[in-house]
Write a structure and sequence with these properties.
Distance between the termini: 33 Å
Largest sheet: 8 strands, mixed
Order of helices and strands: EEEHEHEHEHEEEEEHHEH
Strand content: 25-35%
Structural class: alpha/beta
Number of strands: 12
CATH superfamily: Spore Coat Polysaccharide Biosynthesis Protein SpsA, Chain A
Oligomer: single chain
CATH architecture: Alpha-Beta Complex
Radius of gyration: 17 Å
Length: about 220
């Protein structure tokens, strides 16, 4: 089945405290986004990437795509006001039956194995959303009070959130809601079923300078074998 990865790279880097958007910050001489694209390009030779980026960073992104050596497999799309709108824009070129991965551009540490696992489950079940267990205790605030929640029931959601196009495209044809935080919530609002699978502890979203240091160390260790 045809494969598309919609990679959303529209962050501004405010929490990173840098003027350069975090997807373009360098790890060992290469942008964060370069590592993300590389994983999907290596995962499947017949996978095409739709890369959603801010309009003002199109030229920077084009230079990076040319450097990675697969410009024919990567199409750039301008992002929107929210993540939902950016994903919506990224889905517009897809008109065929396919498996669609939606991934955060600043999650560069995922493995090709996770991509394969998401694909295989989506083909069988219609959806595949990677999650990991919470290592911390969790409490829910109600006004000034809080209530403990059993930690074993909490799952932390990652990407790539993966769906059959017959499920994801109709869900994104519905009207936007502010409660949509990810693709799973959009599909559920449409009445679709979301199936989870094991994610990866290293598949973090780079948000802070500490995350960038962690990613650099992991990439260094992988390079050394």
């Amino acid at each position: 089945m045809k494969k598309y990865a919609v990679i959303v790279a529209g962050g501004s880097g405010q929490r990173m405290g840098t003027q350069v958007p975090k997807q373009f910050l360098l790890i060992h001489g290469k942008p964060v986004l370069w590592y993300t694209l590389d994983v999907f390009l290596r995962a499947y030779e017949d996978l095409d990437i739709i890369l959603v980026v801010p309009e003002e960073h199109m030229e920077t992104t084009r230079t990076m795509i040319n450097a990675i050596g697969a410009p024919h497999r990567i199409r750039m799309i301008t992002g929107g006001a929210t993540r939902w709108h950016s994903v919506y824009n990224g889905l517009q070129p897809i008109r065929e039956d396919a498996v669609i991965f939606v991934h955060d551009g600043v999650r560069p540490l995922l493995s090709t194995e996770l991509v394969h696992n998401c694909y295989e489950q989506a083909v069988l079940m219609g959806s595949a959303v990677p999650v990991v267990d919470s290592k911390d205790s969790v409490r829910v605030m109600t006004g000034e009070d809080s209530t403990a929640i059993e930690r074993s029931r909490i799952k932390l959601v990652q990407t790539p959130q993966t769906f059959l196009s017959s499920i994801l495209l109709p869900a994104y044809a519905k009207e936007y809601r502010e409660t949509f935080t990810d693709e799973a919530s959009v599909v559920e609002a449409y009445g679709g079923k979301v199936f989870l699978l094991n994610g990866e502890a290293e598949n973090i979203k780079i948000t802070t300078p500490l995350d960038l240091l962690f990613a650099g160390k992991i990439i260094e260790e992988r390079a050394s074998g």
